[in-house]
């Protein structure tokens, strides 16, 4: 029985005919990748806004070495008109899906998957058919994933690129001061505990 992907799972490999030729999915890895699993039919309004926003932000993703791979189950011919990669229904239902009135799985308009260079799943977000995604948030997540993979830090709620980051609780005070040369500061809490340590973005 097929199941959805969980964090840490290896990306499924597949071959697909696309608007840019045949691709082998895992050959695209080596970079963090964003995936959009689209609504079963091209030209649906929510999905169209998704693709437009993705195209507008493409330079921001490209400069961070992110490969955007929008997917749908429609034909390549339809996809050429809609400028996106296509995928068949058998593969699409490997991913979390809604079901139609007959109980047949259909892909949601956007299921975002982020895979790391090791081909493992780092993030997934499933949106309902009536709700478009937030590409500002998706870009924010990529920035966080790349930063925290390289540095021993974490990113707090609502953090924007350039804001301070958090020092991991597993790093002792003296080691943190040595590693994080821009300095470490602690936010005061009513409890008096020094668990919220910050440093300027490395």
What this model shows, in words?
With 202 residues, the chain is α+β, with helices and mostly antiparallel strands. It has 2 domains: 9-150, Glutaredoxin (3-Layer(aba) Sandwich), CATH 3.40.30.10; 153-199, Antioxidant, Horf6, Chain A, domain 2 (2-Layer Sandwich), CATH 3.30.1020. The chain is 26% helix and 22% strand. It contains 5 helices and 12 strands. The strands form 4 sheets. It has a 4-stranded mixed sheet with strand order 4-3-7-8, with helices on one face. A hairpin with a 5-residue loop joins strand 5 (97-99) and strand 6 (105-107). The chain is elongated, with a radius of gyration of 20 Å. The relative contact order is 0.15. The active site is at 47 (cysteine sulfenic acid (-soh) intermediate). Belongs to the peroxiredoxin family.
Keywords, please?
single chain, 202 residues, alpha+beta, Glutaredoxin, Antioxidant, Horf6, Chain A, domain 2, four-stranded mixed β-sheet, four-stranded antiparallel β-sheet, 5 helices, 12 strands, redox-active center, antioxidant, EC 1.11.1.27
What is the correct CATH architecture of the largest domain?
A: 3-Layer(aba) Sandwich
Rounded mean pLDDT score? 77
The helix content is: 25-40%
Q: Please identify which CATH superfamily of the largest domain we are dealing with.
A: Glutaredoxin
What do we call the CATH topology of the largest domain?
Answer: Glutaredoxin
**Top CATH class of the largest domain:** Alpha Beta
Q: What's the number of domains?
A: 2
Task: Give the radius of gyration.
Answer: 20 Å
Q: From the helix content, strand content and strand pairing, which structural class follows?
A: alpha+beta
Number of strands: 12
* SSE pattern, N- to C-terminal: EEEHEHHEEEEHEEHEE
The biggest sheet amounts to: 4 strands, mixed
